[in-house]
Amino acid sequence: MIGALFYWGFTLSIWGVVGAGALAVYYGSQLPPIDQLAVPKRPPNIAIMGSDGELLANRGDTGGAAIRISELPPYLPKAFIAIEDRRFYSHWGVDPQGIGRALLRNVTGRGGMQGGSTLTQQLAKNLFLTQERTISRKIQEAILALWLEHKYSKDQILELYLNRVYFGSGAYGVEAATQRYFGHSARTATLSESAVLAGLMKAPSKLAPDRNPEGATERAAQVITAMAQEGHISETMAKAALAHPAQAAKGLGAGSANYAADYVMDMLDDTIGAIDQDIVVTTTIDPRLQAVAEGALKEELDNKGAKYGVSQGAIVSIDPNGAIRALVGGRDYSESQFNRAVSAKRQPGSAFKPFVYLAGLEHGMTPESVREDGPLNIKGWTPENYSHEYFGPVTLTKALALSLNTVAVRVGLEVGPKAVVKTAHRLGVQSDLQPNASIALGTSEVTPLELVAAYAPFANGGVGVQPHIITRVKTASGKTLYQRKGSVFGRVIEPQYVAMMNTMMQETLLTGTARKAALPGWQAAGKTGTSQDFRDAWFVGYTSRLVTGVWLGNDDSSPTKKASGGNLPVEIWSRYMGIALRGAPVASLPTGSWRSDAEEVIAKPLDELIGIFTGADHQPAPAPPPRPQRQAPPPPAENRAAEETLSSPDETATILPPPRARAARTREIDDLLPPADVPNAGAAPPPSPRRGRSPAPQEKNIFEQLFGGN
Q: Which residue ranges does the record annotate as region Disordered (predicted)?
């Protein structure tokens, strides 16, 4: 009897081995030939760094860079061994004891084909196989695990494992996971954090510490206990780790730095082409300034956005050489990844006027040239100041500071809309601009980035710049793939005109529409802008150190509740610039000197033609007054929001216009809501600026525009 049992037991064992071998051969034949097997290349990671070397974001399929096991704290890999594969260093890829335990659970109904897989088997599954749970897949997994053990050392296998497994939330590899959940490198992971990471292998999505902190902590305690039982850590270390569980960092992965990172990715294709390995991209972004800009925008919108009907905003801050120091593309990246700073085209309103006045200066005017601020009728279009009142003869400096629309239009028509467009393009505006009369009031759309870049020549002395965000690209091993060299577009404004424009735009902050934007101790200049029906509110201002633009509005272009350039944008700009310039050496703007010997005595004849052929109530432009002393005129009431009352006594003063002008009301005089484009000859008058815009006509020159020629 005993002999028979032995015989049949031996026979069945032989057949079992033969059967297992046959299955192995069969399923193994469905794998690539062993001599052709190779570990798949890990998808490349792009580590995007700030100018100070701080990690801003990772981009790529893995969510983080690979890391060597020698760079990790010793307890981190041991945490994975303790909870996932205690016999890792003693088995040869497949652990019979583990398989036996898994089979027992399967037979007793306490689990399916799970458990029993070694770290090597898990790696094989991640590298070569799908996630299906079948007998065939388990057999192939075992075959591949044996191959891995033959091909690589235990530490190499463990390093591959730690860099390839999925940790949830789009993070592949321990470095990506530590950055994602705890905000720092795996090189500095604590014991408690290491236990959480190892615990994620059971259920990455379910046990993510930022979603299920209680579950993550409970699982981490199991890992720490297992580590102590295996002798990987002392009892004292275990108690300390259990007493101080890891806490996931809040808000990671959703900050405004991701807008900058997305822009970097857009630029990389043109910088280095295809990416086939891990790279490190060093940018111009200053993490401190980025955080300040993000905070200033979010806090202002949280506090006043509802009051003014504003839901979105963008901030661009560059140095005078074009390096982007902060780039905030929206209120909250987690809610909207659309980058308004570089992709949203909006009407700049009066923030476009500096290009109009620069064109005027380059055609012989000076800051003290006088033009009439009065009613104007151009083939049915009647641009007005916001207050519907006029100041009569005013200098160009005063007209720009107070954002007087009729003067801007007169200057634009004198030099010609095409000259204005050419000037804006020369300084850095890249968008298409319509060369019609309303261009003087900023009716053609631009992006915040290009508008800010076009202001840079005023801050740097007249040199055109290319806004840039990438300074260097290296491989993970340190090989340089790209190094930015200093490059500018050369001089785009002559020094005397830079001096004139800075003199004029300083008045905007001293006595004009942006008085709230004054920075104590700094020479600053800039221009506000508000588009039709208060759809867009802008302020672009600069010092010798930074050029910063703020845009506010709504994504659907719906009107705000009278948000204008002189209120919220100026407040955000001042908050940001006040902190950004803290500690920086004070330096003056390039103002230089200029002469008014060539100043015109009367306006160009075109001003009279406007009245003759368009029906405007025209009076000859007066002779300029004696050259005034450089002192600030009384402050305007323009930069008061319609809903606010200024607290400072001097902010309630009004400007007394010349005798021919009606008294100015104490209300905001910022920008005329830009009108409809100039209609074609013989067409009906355009709709009110508050009711819509008509398509821009095709024009060949200003005389055709005025006289209706084809």
A: 615-710
**Helices (H), ranges, 337-445:** 340-343, 353-362, 396-401, 405-415, 417-427
Question: How many whole angstroms separate alpha carbon 611 and alpha carbon 303?
Answer: 47
How far is 185 from 64, CA to CA, in rounded Å? 10
* CA 334 to chain centroid: 12
Q: Which amino acid appears at position 179 of this protein?
A: Q
Task: Determine the residue type at 363.
Answer: H
CA atoms 566, 568, 569, 570: torsion sign = positive
- In angstroms, the Cα distances linking 348 to 441, 630, 674 are 8, 29, 10
**Cα(180)–Cα(699) distance, rounded to whole angstroms?**
55
Distance of alpha carbon 469 from alpha carbon 474, whole angstroms: 15
Residue 130 has which token pair?
């799908």
Beta pairing class for 279-283 and 46-49: parallel
C-alpha 547/C-alpha 241 separation (Å) is 48
Contact (Cβ atoms closer than 8 angstroms) between residue 399 and residue 407:
yes
Give the model's pLDDT for residue 584: 93
| Per-residue exposure over 58-79, b if at least 16 CB sit within 10 Å of its own CB, e if not | bbbebbbbbbebeebbebbbbb
Q: Which residues pair with 314 in a beta bridge?
A: 551
Residue 395: both structure tokens together = 């200098």
| CA torsion through residues 236, 238, 243, 244, sign | positive
pTM score: 0.77
Whether 18 contacts 25, CB under 8 Å: no
| Residue 313 to residue 331: CA distance in whole angstroms | 6
Helix H or strand E encompassing 607? helix 605-614
Residues 6+ apart with CB under 8 A from 19: none
Other Cβ atoms closer than 10 A to 327: 32
CB 493 within 8 A of CB 295: no
Tell me the one-letter amino acid at 200: L
Residue 584 CB neighbours (<10 A)? 12
Residue 525 tokens, joined: 């200049």
Within 165-308, where are the H helices?
174-182, 191-199, 213-229, 235-243, 257-272, 287-308
Collapsed DSSP state (helix, strand, coil) of residue 185:
coil
- CA–CA dist 385, 669 (Å, integer): 7
Calculate the average pLDDT of the chain. 81
The pLDDT of residue 669: 36
Q: Rounded to 5 degrees, what are φ and ψ at 553?
A: 170, -160
Amino acid (1-letter code) at residue 634:
P
Helix locations, 395-514, DSSP H: 396-401, 405-415, 417-427, 448-460, 495-510
* C-alpha–C-alpha distance, residues 273 and 280, integer Å: 14
Backbone φ, ψ for residue 473 (5° rounding): -130, 125
User: If residue 154 lies in a helix (H) or strand (E), which one and from where to where?
Assistant: helix 154-164
State the residue for tokens 């006045």.
357
- The CA radius of gyration of the chain, in Å to the nearest whole number, is 35
Q: What is the DSSP string of 209-245?
A: TTT-HHHHHHHHHHHHHHHHHTTSS-HHHHHHHHHS-
Work out whether strand 324-328 and strand 370-373 pair parallel, antiparallel, or are unpaired: unpaired
Which residues carry out catalysis?
Answer: 84, 350
What would the pLDDT profile of 125-156 be if each residue is shown by its tens digit?
988 877 676 777 788 888 899 999 999 999 99
Helix (H) or strand (E) holding 121: helix 119-128
Tokens of 413: 């028509």
CA 637 to chain centre: 34
Q: How far apart are CA 158 and CA 87, in angstroms?
A: 13
Per residue in 467-514, pLDDT tens? 999 999 999 989 999 999 876 789 999 999 999 999 999 999 999 999
CA distance 678 to 698: 10
Residue with tokens 């633009």: 549
